[in-house]
Each structure stands twice: as structure tokens, then as C-alpha cells.
Design goal:
With about 325 residues, the chain is an alpha/beta fold. The protein has 13 helices and 7 strands. The chain folds into 2 domains: about 10-110 and about 220-315, Rossmann fold, CATH 3.40.50; about 140-220, Putative methyltransferase TM0872, insert domain (DNA polymerase, domain 1, Orthogonal Bundle), CATH 1.10.150.170. The longest helix is centred in the C-terminal third of the chain and has 16 residues, at about 250-265. The protein binds S-adenosylmethionine.
Length: about 325
């Protein structure tokens, strides 16, 4: 394990600007990580603003606790998923919040901790377990998924989570390989990818996408984004803001569609004569197109290069 938590918050000023926070505001940070965004939020809402911060990863929470110690009881730390946002706020006696931030995916620190198994490049891949759980107490690792998933499930993950060219070929190869020997380490999976012969001649090693797809399956990341956004909509006061940072197209697509549905309200299929879903518009878009980092930020923090920020404001219910 790395001894220090290193993660530079992406699009920090843009996140703050779109949260449009006042002093004394109550804010949810659904993805505390090392607490970089949280620190800026707490400064902007001081001296009385409150922050409820979630993380699935107990090590990230420990790092955030240390980083945010100066803010004392203005911060509530929650070990759990932002999918639980509604229940947690209720248990804290908080009925409405002024802002919600989701900075999706994994932190640099998680990526750089080899024993977590999030990353395919690095020394001794034969010693790196296929784990990829954000919460180490979660029941299933990436190795478990690779052992148990059907070929169709594997194809679905590779396609829906990462738009991986050659998804079917790789799924077939994994199913063949595991008959002989289970895939347990990064090296095992990289060998299967090489044998499947996918991604030849592309700029990035296809393992980048394969690892991304598996990580998202292990942590049900797309399901969590949908649930989290729904919960955030319920929790926001009218004109309260939600800011979401996504890092690749599969994540961003889910955010975009969830915002679009909430702006439109009715989700009945086209040509349904009368609305049967009964849903009302509940968000207004603040960003029409996603905001991306300036060149300066990408130079000083290369991992921010793929960040895309979308923001929306809660509108009052019409019924
Ligand atoms: C990109 S990092 C956040 C970095 C943070 N904004 C900062 O400034 O340090 C994403 C964090 O969200 C956590 N995470 C991802 N999905 C989550 C979920 N569904 N619920 C709670 N935490 C989650 C990860 O464990 C990781 O620590």
C-alpha cells in the first residue's frame, strides 16, 4: 500500500462554480476520495456549512478524515455507496441539501495501489490479484466474475462499459482459458487479451479498456450512477445544484441520459397516447455540453485529461 494519498481533484474551480454554494450550505460529496473537492467545498461554505461525504473505500475515508480534520464536526464521514444517499441523509435528520457532487470512478491512489488490482501496467503483473473492489468487504472480486460469468455477460460488460472492439473474441478466449486454469492475476488476464489478438495496432493497450469494463462490473458502477443521481434529485432543494464528473464515455452517457430524463420528466415510450409514467420534469440543465479541463490543467494533472463535468439545477415539482 502507498503510504500517502495522492489525488489531485479534477476541474476543481469549475466544480465549485457550478455548485454555486453559499456560506452555511449543506452539501453531499458522494465520492470523497482523499477529500480534495471536499476541502474546497468546506472552505467555500465556512464557517457553518456542513458536508456529508461518502466513500466505498475505507482507506480513502481514513485519508479524507486526516485531510479534513480542521473542519471538525462540520463533516460526516459515511463508509458506503452514494446509492444510500437518501437513507443516510434521513438518518442524519437532513431533509434537503444545497448541492451534490459526484466525482466518479477510481482515485489515482487506488489506481497506484497494486494490491487493489485496478491497473494492468506496472511491475510483476503475475503478483497483482484480479481484485478491483472499491470496498474490500464487497462479496465478489474481478477474479470471481471472470470465473462465473457467462460468455454473454462478459461480452455485455466489455461492450457496455468500454466499447471494446473484439469483445466477443475476448469473451470466447476467457471462457476457453478458464477451462484449463482460473484467471487470478493481472498477468493471466493480459495473456488472455494477447491470445485473443484484440486491439492490435491501436495506440492504447486494449487491457486499459478491459480492466475498466471489469472494474465497473465488480462495483456495478453504472447502476450506482443511475441510483445516485435519482437520490440526489430527491435530496436537492429547489435551485440546488448537482455536479457530476465522468471520465469516459460509458459513464458520461449514463449521466447525460439521466439528466435528459429528469429534464424531460415523462419517460413513456414515443407514441404512447397518454402519459402512464406520471413523471414530472425535476432538473434544469446548467451545462448544455460537458465542460472539459483547460490545457494547463491537463499538463499539470494528466489524469484530469478525460474529465467531463455536467451540472444541473433542481426545479420545484409541479404537482
Ligand atoms: C475520483 S475519486 C474522488 C476524488 C475526490 N473528489 C478528491 O478530490 O480527492 C472517486 C472516489 O469515489 C469512490 N467511489 C466510487 N464509487 C462510489 C460509490 N458508488 N459510492 C461511494 N464512493 C464511491 C472511490 O472509492 C474513490 O475514492
Amino acid at each position: 500500500m502507498l503510504s500517502t494519498f495522492a489525488h489531485r481533484p479534477a476541474l476543481l474551480q469549475e466544480s465549485l462554480a457550478h455548485l454555486a454554494l453559499q456560506r452555511g450550505a449543506t452539501v453531499v460529496d458522494g465520492t470523497l476520495g482523499g477529500g480534495g473537492h471536499a476541502e474546497a467545498i468546506l472552505k467555500a461554505t465556512g464557517p457553518t456549512g456542513r458536508l456529508v461525504g461518502f466513500d466505498l473505500d475505507p482507506e480513502a475515508l481514513d485519508a479524507a478524515r486526516k485531510h479534513l480534520v480542521e473542519f471538525g464536526d462540520r463533516v460526516v464521514f459515511v463508509h458506503g455507496s452514494f446509492r444510500e444517499l437518501g437513507n443516510v441523509l434521513e438518518s442524519q435528520g437532513i431533509s434537503r441539501v444545497d448541492g451534490v457532487l459526484f466525482d466518479l470512478g477510481v482515485s489515482s491512489w487506488q489506481l497506484d495501489s497494486p494490491e487493489r488490482g485496478f491497473r494492468f501496467s506496472g511491475p510483476a503483473p503475475e503478483l497483482v490479484p484480479l481484485d478491483m473492489r472499491m470496498d474490500p468487504a464487497a462479496p465478489r472480486t474481478a477474479a470471481d466474475l471472470l470465473r462465473d460469468a457467462s460468455r454473454d455477460e462478459l461480452v455485455g460488460w466489455f461492450q457496455n462499459h468500454a466499447d471494446l472492439p473484439g469483445s466477443k473474441r475476448l469473451a470466447r478466449e476467457i471462457v476457453e482459458s478458464r477451462r484449463a486454469r482460473p484467471l487470478r492475476t493481472s498477468a493471466d488476464l493480459i495473456e488472455a487479451i494477447d491470445r485473443a489478438g484484440i486491439g492490435r495496432g491501436r495506440r492504447h493497450h486494449p487491457a486499459t479498456l478491459v480492466f475498466q469494463a471489469l472494474r465497473m462490473a465488480v462495483n456495478d458502477e453504472l447502476g450506482a450512477i443511475r441510483n445516485g443521481i435519482e437520490q440526489a434529485i430527491q435530496a436537492l432543494r429547489p435551485e440546488g445544484r448537482m455536479v457530476v464528473l465522468a471520465y469516459h464515455s460509458a459513464e458520461d452517457r449514463v449521466v447525460k441520459n439521466a439528466f435528459r430524463d429528469a429534464v424531460r420528466g415523462c419517460v413513456c415510450p414515443p407514441r404512447t397516447p397518454v402519459c402512464i409514467c406520471g413523471r414530472q420534469p425535476c432538473l434544469r440543465l446548467v451545462t448544455r455540453k460537458p465542460i472539459t479541463p483547460h490545457a494547463d490543467e491537463v499538463i499539470s494533472n494528466p489524469r484530469a485529461r478525460s474529465a467531463r463535468l455536467r451540472a444541473a439545477a433542481r426545479i420545484p415539482e409541479t404537482t
